[in-house]
Design brief:
- With 382 residues, this protein is of the alpha/beta class.
- The strands form 4 sheets. The chain has a 7-stranded mixed beta sheet, sandwiched between helices. A 4-stranded antiparallel beta sheet has the order 11-12-15-14.
- The mean pLDDT is 95.
- The protein binds pyridoxal-5'-phosphate.
- The site of pyridoxal-5'-phosphate has 13 residues, from helix 4.
Length: 382
Amino acid sequence: MRQLRPSTIREILKVTAQPDIISFAGGLPAPELFPVDAVKAAANSVLSQNGPDALQYGPSEGFMPLREWIAEEVRQRGIAAQPAEVLVTNGSQQVLDLVGKLLLNAGDVVLTENPTYLAAIQAFQTFEAHFVPVPTDECGLIPEALPELIRQHRPKFLYTIPNFQNPTGVTLTEERRAKLARIAAEHDLIVVEDDPYGKLRYRGSNVPPVKHWDEANCVIYASTFSKTIAPGLRLGWVVAPTEVISRLLILKQASDLHTSSFDQRVAYAFLTLNDQAAHLDRIRHAYGERFDVMHAALSAEMPAGFTWTQPEGGMFLWVTGPENLDGMELLSRAIQRKVAFVPGRDFFPGDGGKNHLRLNFSNSTPERIREGVQRLGTLCRG
Ligand SMILES: Cc1ncc(COP(=O)(O)O)c(C=O)c1O
């Protein structure tokens, strides 16, 4: 416990909850796109048709019709999965915790992108993991760097977010995904592929998950309904070989018995009673527009020396400032001006990150994005 720190983002979110602050800090979806009425109808139908079952304890593996739905969904993403290879979890965050419990002993090495998802660092730090960054560029991690890192560090696994990475927005190219799967197979490397954002592509064309090329069964694939239905449901899943699922299941039983029977049934009813393609199109359209607005505003407002990524999906972009920029210091001034973001430093398990900012564009309206970037630009120019 002595080594663990509270999440900077959660601390920042406490400040940014004030309504007069324009916050690009949290990783929150757009609340006005939550399908409230459709979820209400789904909940009504669950309670009127299967009320007692929905309120009873349920199987630790998850509600079978939902596991079948997920197996079909991931098949469409390019992963040949059976329902027995699917475990429903409390968000994909629980997958990270369970994988850490399963695989990590104190001092074990985890390979990650640098920067990477802050709460994955937190999850694996709980098990006293040691992080080794994999070199990355604008096309994601560089698979050719892996054999030497594997030889040197004998990692327990590689953790990667191939689609619209959190925090950078970068997407791993198809060629690199295939190469990563091949190198993992050759070196017996377990890959934990975290894919919360893949369905949020507003530009370009879909790339299959790394697990699509996983003939050696090295890849543990995690995803979630948090960004496509609502994060408050806390519904995610993991796809892995049955030998892995059976072990994760024991760990899940010890930690929470099972994921909410009610929420799983409501999600399943929502998914089967509504037109999912139309629902996702609405989200993608709104996020694409918000990205465009943020990109245009940054182009107009930011001084020379600032650059940013242009993701084709997801919820974040990543700003790089001049070498001497201190993101933490900028944040304290930004909060006085009623605008917030997450400074880059905390996303780096290794060194670096002081001169970066993560900006979320999904959770603010276009008007607030324009206003917030204008405030930020004034600060950066000053
Ligand atoms: C990369 C990544 N993984 C996992 C999660 C956890 O999502 P959830 O537990 O809501 O499925 C998030 C949430 O923002 C994320 O960005």
